[in-house]
Amino acid sequence: MIINHNMGAMNANRMMGINQANAGKSMEKLSSGLRINRAGDDAAGLAISEKMRGQIRGLDQAAANAQDAISLTQTAEGALSETHSILQRMRELAVQSSTDTNTSDDRNKIQSEVDQLAKEITRISNTTEFNTQNLLAGGLSDKFQIGSNASQNISLSVNAMDAQSLGVADSTKSTDTFVNTNTKLATVGNAGRGLDKGTAYKVVTTVNAAAAGAVSTDSEAATNGGALAVTTDTAYTGTSNATYLVKVGSVDSAADNNTATSIQYSKDNGTSWTTVTADASAGITVDGMKFTMAKGVGNQWSVGDQYHFTATAANATIQLQDTSSANIGTATTVHYGDKKATIGSSATGKTVDTTFDFSKIIAGTDTFNVDEVTSDAAVVNDGKVVTDATAAAGINLSSQDKANTAITKIDNAINTVSQERSKLGAFTNRLEHTIANLGTSSENLTSAESRIRDVNMAKEMSTFSKNNILSQAAQAMLAQANQQPQQVLQLLR
C-alpha cells in the first residue's frame, strides 16, 4: 500500500474528465441538431458539407432566376397578345376595304384607323419593359443563370415587334441602286429623298443612256468630270473591268428648301458606309458627268478646292474625284462595320481608303420594284436594277387590289407574331421544367448534406445518457479512491 500516488483516484479523475467532455459534446450536438459543429468534429465531412451547401443555395437562387425569366417572357408574350389582337383588327379592316362597295372616302376612313393601329403596335413595342429593360424594340438578347455553377445559363432573344418590322408600316430606310455593265443609267429623282421602303418610286426599269466616258482597262479612276464609277474585274461579274454608273438623289429645282437629300453608297447586304446630306435647294447631282456639292446642312460645304474620296478593295474601286466643290472644312468620318473612312479636302494631298466587300452577287435577277422587292442586292448582266434593302410598303387600303395585298401582308405579320409568341411560350415551358428539376436537385442535395452534417437525435441522446452516467460513476469512484489512503491510519493504531 502506497500513499504518494493514488493511482485509483488519478484514473477515476481522468475518466471522469473524458466522460464529462463527451457529455458536453453530446449536449452541444443535441442543442444545435448538428453532428458537425466545428471542423474538429469531422474535417472531411465539413468540407463536403460546405460544398453541398453552396450548391444547394445556388440551385435555390437559380430557381428564383428561372421564375424571374418566366415573368419576363410572360410580360413580352402578354404584350404580343395585344399586338395579335390589333393585327386581327387590321386584317378585318383590310377585308372590309377590299370590296368595291366602299367609296374612296370610306377607304380613307378605314386607312386612318389602320394607321393609328400601326402606331399603337409600334408604341407597344417601344414601351413594353421588364425591370426597365425594353423587350420588343429589338436587340434583346438575355442570358438567364439557371444553375448553381458558372456558365450554366440559357439565352433568349426577342425580335423587334414594331409595325415597321412586322411590315405593316412604312420604313424610312434608304437604299442603293446599281446598274450593270451595259453603260445604262438608273435614276432616282424623288425630290430630295433616298429610296424609302414603302414608297412606290417609278424606277421599275432602267433608263437607256450612254456612259459619259468609259473607264479604261485596269483603271481605278472615275469617269470624265468626276462621275461615280465602280470598277471591278472577273471576280465580280465575269466582265473584266466593267464600269457601273449610277445617278442617285438628283434634286428637282422646285423641291422644298427644307427637304434633305441623302446619297448613300451601300455594301450589297444593305450596310450603309457613306452618307452625304445637303440642303435640297443647294443640290446634289450625280449624272455620269459631274458630282456637284454646294452649301449643305451640317457639314457646311462650300465651293472651292477640289474634293477627293476613295474607297478600295482587292477587286473593286469606288471613286469620286475632280469635283467642282469641296472645301469641306471639318472632315466627315463615315463607317462601315469596324472600319472607317474620312472625307476631307484633297488640297492636303491625303486620300483615305477603306475595304468594300463585293461578296453576295445574285446573277440573273431582272426586276426592280420598290413596292415589293425583298431580295438581297445584286448587279445583274441585263441592264435591270435591284435594291439591297427590303422594300415592302406599309398597309395601303386605297384600292381593292392594294387592300388584297394588305391582307397578305397582315397575314405575314400575324404569322411573325405567332412565331415569336410560340418561341416565348416554348421558352416559358422549358423554364418551368427547369424550375422543377432545380427543386428536385436541391432536395436531393439537401438530403445528402443532412446525412453528413445533421445529428441523429435518438442515437446522440443515448450517447449523452451513457456519458452522463459514466461521468457520475467516475465521480463516485473518485470519492472512493480518495478514501483509500485513509486506511493506512488503521495500521498506526
TrEMBL record:
<dbReference type="GO" id="GO:0005576">
    <property type="term" value="C:extracellular region"/>
</dbReference>
<keyword id="KW-0966">Cell projection</keyword>
<dbReference type="InterPro" id="IPR042187">
    <property type="entry name" value="Flagellin_C_sub2"/>
</dbReference>
<keyword id="KW-0975">Bacterial flagellum</keyword>
<dbReference type="GO" id="GO:0005198">
    <property type="term" value="F:structural molecule activity"/>
</dbReference>
<comment type="similarity">
    <text>Belongs to the bacterial flagellin family.</text>
</comment>
<dbReference type="GO" id="GO:0009288">
    <property type="term" value="C:bacterial-type flagellum"/>
</dbReference>
<keyword id="KW-0969">Cilium</keyword>
<dbReference type="Pfam" id="PF00700">
    <property type="entry name" value="Flagellin_C"/>
</dbReference>
<dbReference type="InterPro" id="IPR046358">
    <property type="entry name" value="Flagellin_C"/>
</dbReference>
<dbReference type="InterPro" id="IPR001492">
    <property type="entry name" value="Flagellin"/>
</dbReference>
<comment type="function">
    <text>Flagellin is the subunit protein which polymerizes to form the filaments of bacterial flagella.</text>
</comment>
<dbReference type="InterPro" id="IPR001029">
    <property type="entry name" value="Flagellin_N"/>
</dbReference>
<protein>
    <recommendedName>
        <fullName>Flagellin</fullName>
    </recommendedName>
</protein>
<feature type="domain" description="Flagellin C-terminal">
    <location>
        <begin position="407"/>
        <end position="492"/>
    </location>
</feature>
<keyword id="KW-0964">Secreted</keyword>
<keyword id="KW-0282">Flagellum</keyword>
<feature type="domain" description="Flagellin N-terminal">
    <location>
        <begin position="3"/>
        <end position="138"/>
    </location>
</feature>
<dbReference type="Pfam" id="PF00669">
    <property type="entry name" value="Flagellin_N"/>
</dbReference>
